[in-house]
């Protein structure tokens, strides 16, 4: 199955739930995660007890793809050196293409 997961929240616990979901789904589905707006501000990623950095790394290592709209600079600090293009800065047109590609769309 092809899943498009769209995250548009700045609520820490909802972000954690979205990352748990994509990590579960990527085991047997092709998953593209699109991050909108201010949901990946430093204050969210720096909440160490939630292990969001590790969840992002796990998702990418397992074949997930992350797309962002205007937040990529913050996310890139958590991506290993030399992995350019892992988290491309994306547009609303890209989001539309991902939604057309997907069998199912989930929004957090």
TrEMBL record:
InterPro entries: DsrEFH-like (IPR027396), Sulphur_relay_DsrE/F-like (IPR003787)
SUPFAM superfamilies the UniProt entry points to: DsrEFH-like (SSF75169)
Protein name: Uncharacterized protein involved in oxidation of intracellular sulfur
Organism placement in taxonomy: Bacteria, Pseudomonadati, Aquificota, Aquificia, Desulfurobacteriales
């Amino acid at each position: 199955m092809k899943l498009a997961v769209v995250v548009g929240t700045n609520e820490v616990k909802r972000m954690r739930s979205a990352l748990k979901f994509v990590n579960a789904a990527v085991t047997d589905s092709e998953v593209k995660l699109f991050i909108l707006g201010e949901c990946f501000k430093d204050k969210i990623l720096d909440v160490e007890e939630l292990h969001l950095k590790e969840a992002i790394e796990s998702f990418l290592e397992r074949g997930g793809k992350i797309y962002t709209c205007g937040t990529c600079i913050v996310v890139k600090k958590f991506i290993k050196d030399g992995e350019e293009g892992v988290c491309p800065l994306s547009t609303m047109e890209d989001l539309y293409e991902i939604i057309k590609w997907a069998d199912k769309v989930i929004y957090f």
